[in-house]
Design a protein that fits this description.
heterotrimer; A mainly alpha; B mainly alpha; C alpha/beta; A: mainly alpha; 23 helices; C: 6-stranded mixed β-sheet; globular; binds sodium ion; DctQ (chain B); cell membrane (chain B); transmembrane (chain B); transmembrane helix (chain B)
Chain lengths: ~450, ~150, ~325
C-alpha cells in the first residue's frame, strides 16, 4: 500500500511536470496512466485493457450530446444572433449609467442560452459589444472585464459543456443538471449587473450612460430576440418537459440555429464547414482528455490513492463544510493554471468520492447536483483568474490596446460577486435544488 | 459526419428501440476519426503559462517531444485495438436490438488510428523543421472554443 | 497471503449486492483459506472501462474476478438467456440459481469457455413499476412506453403491446417524471437507490411474487488465475460458491426486493398484486416470447434448454 502511495504521488508530480513543459494535457494523462499502471500491475494487464477501452468509453450515449451542443453553439456564433441580442438589451438598458455594460451582460446570458461554451460566448459577444462600450467611453478596464466575466455565462446558463461532462463523470442525469443550473445562472446575471451598477457609482466616469432610444427602436430591437427565445424554449424547454432526450434536442437546436443563420445572416456553406471543423477539434480534444482521465483513474485506483485519501479524510475529523471549502480552494488554485474542462475531467474523479462520503443532509442524487453547480462556478472562475484565464486571453485578442493586467483588474469585481454567489449556494442548497425538485414532481 | 449523426438522431428521435445503440456505435467511430485532425491542427489543449518566456527553439523542441507522445500513443493503440478486433470477432458481442456485431466499429477506428499515426509523424517533422529554423508547412489554429 | 485477487464490478459500494453479497462472500473465502487468499473488491468500475467490458476484462486477465450482468454483452450468453425468459423464471430465485448450477456442465458451459465460473444467479425478477397508470392485465400495457431491462426484455415489452425504450438506469427517475416512459420493467430492489417511490405510483407483480422474467448474473474468475491455484484453495472457492451459498444469494436478493417494495408502500404507493387469472392472461401473451426466442437460436437446442430449465426449476422449487 505504501509503495502504491509513493507511486501515486510520483505519478501526480510527473503529471504536473509534463503539463508544465507543454505536453498536451490529454497525452500527459495517457502517459502517466499507462506507465503508472504498468509499474503497479503487470504490463499485460494494461495492454489488454487498451484493446477496447477507447471503443467502450467513446460509445456512450450520454456523451453524444456533447458534439451536438458544440455544433449548435458553433453555428450560433456565426449567425449574427449576438448582434440582435445586444441591440435589444441595449435598447432597454443603454440609457442607464453603466447601461451598455449591463446590456452586454444580458447579451452574453442570451447567447449562453444557445451556446455551451464560455470562450465562444466571450469572443462572440466581445466582437459585438466591445466596440460599443468604447464608443460610449467606458473605461477599458470595465469594458474588457465585463465581457470576460460575461463570457462565463456561456457555461453557467444551460446548455453547458462543462455540466454535461460533470454529469457523465458522476453519473447524474443531464436534464437534472441543466435544470439545476438555471436559477443560479440567472442569479449570476443579476449579481453581475449589480456589480456594474455599484462599480460605475464607486468609480466615477467609468461607465457613462448611453443614449435613450425611441419607442419604435425599442420595439423593433425587442422583436429581434424572439428567435433566441423560441429556440431556447424548443431545445431546453423541450428537454425540461421531457418531450425528447438531450441528444435529439441538441440535434433539433442545430437545425433551428442553422435555419436562423441562413435566413437572418446568409450563413453559407463555408461557415457551416468551419463550424463542423470547430466541432471536430473541440470534441476530439474533450474525448481524448476523457480517455486520459480514465487511464489516470485506473492507475490511481490500483495504487490505492483514492482509498487512502478517503481514509485520511474520514479519520482527520474535519467537518463536511471544511472539506468542501478545501475542495473549492483546490479548484480555485487549479483554475489559475488550467482550463475549466480539463480541470473537471482531471479533478472530479478524485474529489467527488470524497464529497460523496460526507453528510450535508442531502440525498446522494441531490448532493451530486448541488456539488456540481458549486464546482461549475468555481471552475468557471478559472477562466478569468490570472495567470491562465482563457476568457481574458480572448478579450486581449479583441482589444489589443488594453493591457491584459487591466482586464484582469477589471474582472476582479465580478470575481468577488461570484464568491458571494458560491457562498449563497453553499449556504442554501434549496436555491439550486428548487427546479430539479419541481421537475421530479 | 456530425451532421449525419444529427440527421440520424432526428430520424430516430421517436420511440425506436435502436436509437441508443446506433448513436453510441456511430459516435465512437466518428470520435476516432476526429483525432488525426485534432493532432494535425494542434487542437489538444496545453498549459502554456510556464513556457511563455522560453525561446522559439525550446518551444519547438517541446513540440517535437509532444508529437512523439502522440506517435507512440497511436502506434500502441493501433496494435492493441487490432487485437481487440480479434477478440470481438471471436466472441461476437452484438447490439441489443439490431444485433449489429460490435466488431464492425473496429475497422474504421483502426484506419483512423493509422491516420493519427501519420498526423503525429507530420507534426513531429514540422517540429523538427521549426527547430532547424525552416518555415512551417502548416499553420496551426489553437482550440480555445471548448471551455 | 499467497494469492491476491482483484474483484471488479459496476455497482456502488453501498449497493446491497456489494455489502450483502460480494463482501461477505469474499470475507468467507479469505477466512476459510486461513489468510492465504486476499480479495480486493473494486466497486463502481473503479478499475476502468464500462460495465459491458467486465466479461472481457476477466477473460483477458485485466482483473481476476468479476460480478457482471450477462445481458450487458448481448450475443455472448445465449444459452443462459433461457433463464431470463418469462414463464421460465417465475418467482423462485433459489430454484433458478440451483437449476443453472445443475445445468451448467451439460448445457451452459460452452458460452463460459473463456473464464472459470464461480457461480451464476438471478435477481427477484422484473416487476412493472408505473409512473401514473395502474396495470391489472395485458390490456393496460398496450400502447405504453416501457423501459426495458436488457436484450430479453425487448421481446417481453413488445409482447405486452408496448414500445421498448432503452436507457441507462440512472436516467429512469427523470424519464418517469417527464413521461418519456410510462413505466419500467425492473425489480423492486432498485426503488431505494433511485428513490422510485417519488416518480412512480404503482408497483405491480403477479401472485406469489411472480414476475415477467429476470436477469442472470455471473461471478467468474480469470482462467489462468484459476488454473494457478492449488487444489485446496480451489476447494475453498468451490465450497463457498455451492448450493448453500446460492440459497443465501437468493435470500439476499429477495430481502433487498422486499425492502424496496416496503419503502414504496410506506410512502403511499400502491402495490398491485395481480390475481392468478390476470397473471395467466399476461403469460398467455408472453408465451410467444419463449417460442420466438427458441426460433432465434438455431445453433444449439434452445427448445430442450427451455424444457430442461423449467423441469429443473420445478424440481428445486418442490424442495428437494
Ligand atoms: Na450555455
Ligand atoms: Na485561470
Amino acid at each position: 500500500m505504501m509503495d502504491g502511495m509513493i507511486l501515486g504521488v510520483g505519478g501526480l508530480l510527473a503529471l504536473l511536470f509534463l503539463i508544465a513543459v507543454r505536453v498536451p494535457i490529454a497525452y500527459t494523462m495517457i502517459l502517466v496512466g499507462v506507465v503508472g499502471t504498468m509499474i503497479q500491475a503487470r504490463p499485460a494487464i494494461l495492454l489488454n485493457q487498451l484493446k477496447d477501452l477507447g471503443y467502450a468509453q467513446f460509445s456512450n450515449y450520454d456523451l453524444s450530446v456533447l458534439p451536438m451542443f458544440i455544433l449548435m453553439g458553433g453555428l450560433a456564433a456565426r449567425t449574427g444572433l449576438s448582434r440582435d441580442l445586444f441591440r435589444a438589451a441595449n435598447a432597454w438598458l443603454g440609457g442607464l449609467r453603466g447601461g451598455v455594460a449591463m446590456a452586454a451582460l444580458v447579451g452574453c446570458a442570451g447567447f449562453g442560452a444557445l451556446s455551451g461554451s464560455s470562450t465562444a460566448t466571450a469572443s462572440t459577444m466581445g466582437q459585438v459589444a466591445l466596440p460599443e462600450l468604447r464608443r460610449y467611453r467606458f473605461s477599458p478596464q470595465l469594458a474588457t472585464g465585463t465581457i470576460a466575466a460575461g463570457g462565463t455565462l456561456g457555461i453557467l446558463i444551460p446548455p453547458s459543456v462543462v455540466l454535461i461532462v460533470y454529469a457523465i463523470i458522476v453519473e447524474v442525469n443531464i436534464v437534472t443538471m441543466f435544470a439545476a443550473a438555471l436559477i443560479p445562472g440567472l442569479i449570476a446575471v443579476g449579481f453581475f449587473m449589480a456589480t456594474v451598477w455599484l462599480y460605475v457609482r464607486l468609480v466615477p466616469g467609468s461607465g457613462p450612460p448611453g443614449e435613450r432610444v425611441p419607442r419604435q427602436e425599442l420595439i423593433s430591437a425587442s422583436l429581434g430576440v424572439i428567435p433566441v427565445v423560441v429556440i431556447f424554449a424548443i431545445v431546453i424547454g423541450g428537454i425540461y418537459a421531457g418531450i425528447y432526450n438531450p441528444t435529439p434536442a441538441a440535434a433539433i437546436g442545430v437545425v433551428l440555429v442553422g435555419l436562423y443563420g441562413v435566413v437572418r445572416a446568409g450563413l453559407n456553406w463555408r461557415q457551416f464547414v468551419e463550424a463542423l471543423l470547430e466541432t471536430a477539434r473541440t470534441t476530439g480534444m474533450i474525448y481524448l482528455i476523457l480517455f486520459g482521465a480514465e487511464l489516470l483513474k485506473i492507475f490511481m485506483a490500483r495504487a490505492g490513492v483514492p482509498q487512502a485519501a478517503a481514509e485520511f479524510l474520514s479519520t482527520s475529523g474535519m467537518g463536511p463544510y471544511t472539506v468542501l471549502v478545501l475542495v473549492i480552494v483546490a479548484f480555485l488554485i487549479l483554475g489559475c493554471l488550467m482550463d475549466s474542462l480539463s480541470m473537471v475531467i482531471l479533478a472530479i474523479p478524485f474529489f467527488w468520492p470524497v464529497i460523496a462520503d460526507l453528510d450535508f443532509g442531502l440525498g446522494p442524487n441531490e448532493l451530486k447536483i448541488w456539488f456540481g453547480i458549486i464546482i461549475l462556478i468555481v471552475v468557471e472562475l478559472g477562466l478569468i483568474t490570472p495567470p491562465v484565464g482563457l476568457n481574458v486571453f480572448i478579450i486581449n485578442h479583441l482589444a489589443k490596446d488594453v493591457p491584459m493586467r487591466q482586464t484582469f483588474a477589471g474582472v476582479m469585481p465580478f470575481f468577488t460577486s461570484e464568491l458571494v454567489r458560491v457562498a449563497l449556494l453553499v449556504a442554501f442548497p434549496a436555491v439550486t435544488l428548487l427546479l430539479p425538485r419541481l421537475l421530479a414532481g | 459526419m456530425t451532421a449525419a449523426s444529427a440527421v440520424s438522431n432526428l430520424l430516430f428521435a421517436r420511440p425506436f428501440a435502436a436509437d441508443h445503440e446506433l448513436t453510441k456505435h456511430i459516435i465512437a467511430i466518428v470520435i476516432f476519426m476526429f483525432l488525426p485532425y485534432c493532432q494535425l491542427v494542434g487542437a489538444n489543449v496545453t498549459v502554456d503559462i510556464f513556457t511563455e518566456g522560453m525561446g522559439e527553439r525550446t518551444k519547438a523542441a517541446m513540440e517535437v517531444f509532444a508529437s512523439l507522445f502522440a506517435l507512440a500513443f497511436a502506434a500502441l493503440l493501433l496494435v492493441q485495438m487490432w487485437k481487440g478486433m480479434g477478440s470481438y470477432m471471436r466472441y461476437v458481442e452484438v447490439t441489443p436490438v439490431l444485433k449489429l456485431p460490435l466488431w464492425t466499429a473496429f475497422p474504421p477506428i483502426l484506419v483512423s488510428l493509422g491516420f493519427l499515426l501519420l498526423a503525429a509523424l507530420i507534426t513531429a517533422a514540422e517540429g523538427v523543421r521549426h527547430l532547424l529554423g525552416r518555415p512551417a508547412w502548416l499553420t496551426a489554429p489553437r482550440a480555445e472554443e471548448a471551455a | 497471503q499467497d494469492f491476491t485477487f482483484t474483484l471488479h464490478h459496476f455497482l456502488g459500494p453501498k449497493a446491497p449486492a456489494h455489502t450483502k453479497m460480494l463482501v461477505p462472500w469474499a470475507k468467507r473465502i479469505e477466512d476459510a483459506s486461513n489468510g492465504r487468499i486476499k480479495i480486493e473488491i473494486y466497486p463502481s468500475m473503479s478499475l476502468g472501462g464500462s460495465p459491458p467490458q467486465l466479461f472481457r476484462q476477466v477473460a483477458d486477465g485485466v482483473v481476476d474476478i468479476v460480478w457482471t450482468v450477462n445481458g450487458y454483452t448481448p450475443g455472448l450468453f445465449p444459452r443462459s438467456e433461457a433463464f431470463e425468459l418469462p414463464t421460465v423464471f417465475t418467482n423462485d430465485i433459489a430454484a433458478t440459481n440451483l437449476a443453472m448450477r445443475a445445468m451448467f456442465d451439460d448445457y451452459l458451459a460452452p458460452e463460459y469457455e473463456a473464464v472459470h465460473v464461480l457461480f451464476l444467479h438471478v435477481h427477484a425478477g422484473q416487476a412493472l413499476q408505473m409512473a401514473s397508470k395502474e396495470v391489472n392485465g395485458p390490456d393496460d400495457t398496450k400502447g405504453l412506453k416501457l423501459r426495458v431491462p436488457g436484450p430479453t426484455g425487448n421481446a417481453v415489452v413488445e409482447a405486452m403491446g408496448a414500445t421498448p425504450v432503452t436507457m441507462p438506469v440512472p436516467d429512469l427517475p427523470q424519464s418517469l417524471s417527464t413521461g418519456a416512459v410510462d413505466g419500467a420493467l425492473i425489480p423492486f430492489e432498485i426503488i431505494p437507490p433511485l428513490q422510485l417511490q417519488e416518480t412512480t405510483k404503482y408497483q405491480i407483480e403477479g401472485p406469489d411474487n411472480e414476475r415477467f422474467g429476470t436477469t442472470t448474473f455471473q461471478v467468474s474468475m480469470n482462467k489462468a488465475k484459476w488454473d494457478g491455484l492449488p487444489d485446496d484453495l480451489k476447494k475453498v472457492f468451490t465450497d463457498n460458491s455451492g448450493e448453500a451459498w446460492l440459497k443465501e444469494v437468493a435470500k439476499i436478493w429477495r430481502d433487498a426486493d422486499n425492502a424496496g417494495i416496503k419503502m414504496a408502500v410506506d410512502s403511499g404507493n400502491e402495490h398491485v398484486v395481480l390475481s392468478r387469472e390476470e397473471m395467466q392472461d399476461f403469460n398467455a401473451d408472453l408465451l410467444p416470447v419463449v417460442e420466438q426466442w427458441i426460433s432465434e437460436h438455431k445453433d444449439f437446442d434452445a427448445r430442450e434448454i427451455v424444457a430442461k430449465a423449467k423441469d429443473e426449476i420445478a424440481h428445486y422449487k418442490s424442495g428437494d
